[in-house]
Amino acid sequence: MExxxxxxxxxxxxxxxxxxxxxxxxxxxxREPENTQDRVRLRNVVAEAKKQLESxxxxxxxxxxxxxxxxxxxxxxxxxxxxxxGLAIFAAxxxxxxxxxxxxVPERVVLSDTFLTRNLVSAQAAERPFWVLSxxxxxxxxxxxxxxxxxxxxxxxxxMTLSRxxxxxxxxxxxxxxxSTFRDEDTRHFLREADTAMGRLLREDPRPLYVTGEQAALSxxxxxxxxxxxxxxVPHGGLTHAAxxxxxxxxxxxxxxxxxxxTTAVRRELDSARGHRVFAAGVDELWQSAREGRVxxxxxxxxYRTTVRDDGDHLVPAAxxxxxxxxxxxxxxxxxxxxxxxxxxxxPDGSLGDAERIAGVxxx
Length: 364
Known about the structure:
By secondary structure, the chain is an alpha+beta fold. The chain has helices spanning 7-14, 38-55, 61-77, 118-127, 169-175, 185-204, 215-224, 244-275, 283-291, 329-339; strands at residues 21-27, 86-92, 95-101, 108-112, 130-135, 139-145, 150-152, 160-161, 209-213, 232-235, 279-281, 295-301, 308-310, 315-317, 343-347, 358-362. Strands 5, 6, 7, 8, 9 and 10 form a six-stranded mixed β-sheet that branches.
């Protein structure tokens, strides 16, 4: 199952496909007892997708069989023991993908000539993704970070290893056997290559970057003047071969502090916007502003979901299952704002006070 959504991957997902491109969305759960029904629900929604394929006169017999087989392959790849809050299955002639999302999604089947990506986009924004680069004199590990976890990411040439006979750099760093390790020319060249590789990755998938390692390693990276010099340095060695939870625990105090600073900054911007009459709040006002490309900053409380319908002039509250109900209007607003260059911030529940749990600063 896929988790990390880069801009290149998103562009590929949005590419038009031969009809039908099938998007299947379903909520999932991380823990018992809520997750006991996930398998049944998943089978049912895939069966509904096949039913819609069968009844669509625009789908030829050959394509119906192809896409149904792709749905079966996708279903077989789902690991419900490691799902998060939502699941998206994409299937088209000759291809399929399975995405696990750290944000709830409505149950839905859509047949179109493109995949439905707004829930992926919103989940990615809510995750606040970041990179962690753990360095030692002979090994560099890349970690993909999100809202509540890190996981090793094997991409862009990472992990990197400098091969030396009978050499254990992390042990030497811990016990001080060779204080000159990071002055060794091979080590300097090795870490410079890691810095260059990280620069390439950041150009493809820009995110905040944290670098962990012994102080001597961090000082050496400072000398290079590359992307790792400008990262947040975390003087914590021994993480290049660590378990993900150990890396997460090392990062948690910094991430919590940054989240508090970000929330304070967002509230300050919203307060200023009120005074300058460029403030908007609520899904109805923000949906209109988002479609016009007027939103510069969008703030959303992390667990805010609401269902609405369009009465012609405004979005009004609705019940899930109502005719023309839009269960993921918040995700629609998030995607539209990102499409027009807005800065989207998710903040803890209750942070926005009387702003109806979603608020924005307008460009004009």
